[in-house]
Write a structure and sequence with these properties.
By secondary structure, the protein is of the alpha+beta class. The protein has eleven helices and ten strands. The protein is globular, with a radius of gyration of 20 Å. The termini are far apart. Bound molecules: 2-acetamido-2-deoxy-1-O-phosphono-alpha-D-glucopyranose and magnesium ion.
Length: 346
């Protein structure tokens, strides 16, 4: 028949690899977390719009670098490409064989390729009108909205007393004033919405078997209208933190400038064509904001009782928050160096 084994380490959906004995093809089986993605039909529609768009681009330019988009597999028992079983939403996606992915970046060459992957993805969808995509996760990456949630959770609970939590609260307080930077630039018309990936962390980049060339971005649930800055900031907070999202030793967390240089070089090499001067001016703000935002999201979930991100021990979301805050601090400490890199590349 088939074997089913856990795949990847996402902290929202449940993901499995399905191998068949009768056929060489393998598939990705996922239970969609409908607490988070409350309208799975819209998520699936966005994935299909993306796949059709990239296919059309590739047909129009067969010489373009190879790029693969995971696709939804039609369901036999349902008119749509997913099934509802006992109130749970399940779907099957094509598995991209002969590839590998990494949880952290370990060399500038790899960082350059992760950057090129995101730039290639953005370039491929830069002519897809945002009106073709639904907003599948309202408020996603709207930092002031996360701050409002944080305030509401704090106001509703009893005041925290533990030292690490108090330190994290202080960290947020000191940065409150800078959290609307991207949303304000968007409201002022300096930055415009485009289709984005939403979650381009390193382990969502599939490399070829040799581990040198990126061939796909996976985890497409958060493909929706947004600012490319969310993606750029997210890719750098993930790719330039060699210790990953949950290292035991907080004090060792740092943002690696050599990796950042290589990643931005790879990104801009593929994406420069559609970026405006205002986009480039907001790169540093994005690189600093996204780890701060993710830390705030983890901290809020910790204070609220761990309902959003899956955890395996109490305090895990607080630890994840502190890692992102340490990374933010490292970025702030190296602001001049990061700005110099951006300047040299743009
Ligand atoms: C979540 O489940 P996963 O790992 O693909 C989250 C991302 C965070 C990431 C941090 C929809 O993604 O925004 O960056 O955890 N996805 C959603 O590990 O909230
Ligand atoms: Mg994800």
């Amino acid at each position: 028949m088939a074997s089913v084994s856990p795949l990847g380490n996402g902290i929202i959906n449940d993901t499995y690899l399905v191998s068949l004995t009768a056929a060489p093809e393998r598939f990705v089986l996922q239970r969609v977390n409908t607490e988070v993605f409350q309208h799975p039909a819209l998520v699936m529609a966005n994935i299909e719009v993306l796949a059709r768009h990239v296919q059309a681009r590739q047909t129009a330019d067969p010489t373009a670098a190879p790029w693969i988009v995971p696709e939804l597999v039609p369901a036999r028992s349902a008119p749509q490409p997913w099934v509802e079983v006992e109130g749970q939403t399940w779907r099957l996606l094509t598995y991209i064989d002969n590839t590998r992915c990494f949880d952290t970046v370990t060399s500038p060459a790899q960082a350059r390729e992760v950057g090129r992957a995101l730039g290639t993805f953005h370039a491929l969808i830069s002519d897809l009108p945002v009106s073709a995509l639904a907003d599948t996760l309202e408020g996603f990456h709207i930092t002031p909205g996360y701050l409002a949630q944080f305030d509401a959770v704090l106001a509703a609970g009893s005041p925290p007393t533990e030292a690490p939590t108090l330190e994290a609260l202080r960290f947020v307080e000191e940065r409150r004033g800078s959290m609307a930077v991207l949303e304000e630039a968007k409201a002022a018309g300096h930055l415009v919405e485009r289709p984005i990936h939403g979650d381009p962390k390193v382990n969502n980049v599939l490399m070829d078997r040799g581990g040198t060339q990126a061939v796909a971005l996976i985890d497409l649930d958060t493909v929706k209208p947004g600012l490319v800055h969310y993606d750029i900031g997210d890719a750098l907070r993930s790719g330039c933190n060699p210790l990953g999202e949950e290292p035991p030793d907080l004090t060792a967390v740092c943002f690696d400038l050599d990796l950042a240089r290589a990643m931005l070089e790879g990104y801009l090499g593929a994406a420069r064509g559609f970026l405006t001067p205002a986009d480039l001016e907001h790169l540093f703000a994005a690189i600093r904001l996204l780890p701060l935002e993710l830390g705030l999201r983890f901290l809020t979930d910790h204070l609220a009782g761990d309902h959003y991100f899956k955890t395996s021990y109490p305090g895990q979301n607080l630890h994840r928050a502190r890692v992102q805050f340490q990374l933010t601090r490292s970025i702030e400490d190296q602001e001049q160096g990061i700005r110099a890199i951006i300047q040299a590349l743009t």
